[in-house]
Write a structure and sequence with these properties.
Two copies of one chain form a homodimer. With 175 residues, chain A is mainly β. Chain A has two helices and eight strands, in the order E-H-E-E-E-E-H-E-E-E. Chain B binds a DNA duplex (10 and 10 nucleotides) through helix 1, strand 2 and strand 3.
Chain lengths: 175, 175
DNA sequence: TAGACGTAGA
DNA sequence: TCTACGTCTA
């Protein structure tokens, strides 16, 4: 693991092109596109604040895209039941959520990786594929009441112009 | 992921040599050496029973080796606290534990992968390395009371003769 | 649907 | 120590 412990990169990652595909989160980690193995939001400390560097819209959450994929609505993190807190709780503006807010304030680019559930060839098994969709910027965020009754953040990101067109756009309905 | 959903292999895996090293569990999965991402015991269904194919002695458990590494004592699985069962429970002779017992009865080979905690070069960070140690056979198993008061299985495996010597032997004290 | 010797980073 | 859009097989 040559890349262990590297600092998160803000913006483009050398050698990674829009449309590049990956099979496992560990691959995103190895090339520095998105370091955490499970966390959907990666960020880096800059001065006194934390700034989001990349997100993974992996599916299964209440995210969705519109307008040919240029706009992505992304749900915040946290509030999930755990061994300690057995019930959903309101998300807080901390960690990844805070880093996305700060990214909005500072107008810094956020790499977006989208997950796609594919049908495996032989068996009818579903497999995940990850695809790099390029740089976005956080435009706005607000709070909504999630399907479990707790308050969750909703971020709106817009894809930066001038990047290579994406292929046939994945349409996420309640991705 | 070309290897998704493959059936576990009993015995040698083509192309994998004793001493081969890996950085992530996902690599063991990809080459078919050990399929589960987290589970320490892999097994395959054979007729009416399940037979262990490989184990990962990753460290952190109460495993240890003796006699220049030819004998490995390996702890069973299960009984850990979860969200449902908040306290340790006695391990049961099922799943992986049962597959190891059946492997003993049928004298089938078990691949052993050992984990080694290494000191990362630059930072003082600990990283995990996995090393294929070859084929073993389950000789015996019994129950002991674990450090948390619950009953756990202890398996004794012996390395099959005639395999390439291992390098300087890792000595696990309470691995 | 749940359980499992995962991983990194805060 | 804990959280986190993991990922498999049974």
């Amino acid at each position: 693991c040559a890349n262990a412990g590297i600092e998160a990169i803000l913006g483009d990652v050398s050698g990674v092109k829009v449309g590049d595909k990956f099979n496992f989160r560990v691959e995103l980690h190895l090339i520095g596109l998105h370091r955490p193995f499970r966390n959907g939001i990666d960020f880096v400390r800059r001065g006194n604040t934390i700034i989001a560097t990349s997100i993974v819209a992996s599916g299964g959450y209440d995210d969705y895209t519109k307008e040919n994929g240029d706009v992505l609505y992304y749900s915040g993190q946290g509030g999930n039941p755990s061994a300690k807190t057995l019930f959903p709780e309101d998300q807080k503006l901390e960690r990844g959520n805070l880093s996305l807010k700060n990214s909005m304030d500072e107008k810094t680019p956020v790499r977006v990786i989208r997950g796609l559930k594919d049908m495996k060839d032989t068996k009818g098994k579903m497999v995940h594929t990850f695809s790099y969709h390029g740089l976005y910027k956080v435009e706005d965020f607000w709070q909504v009441r999630g399907p479990h009754g707790n308050v969750v953040f909703r971020f709106r990101l817009r894809r930066t112009q001038g990047q290579p067109r994406l292929g046939p756009c994945l349409t996420y309905h309640q991705l």
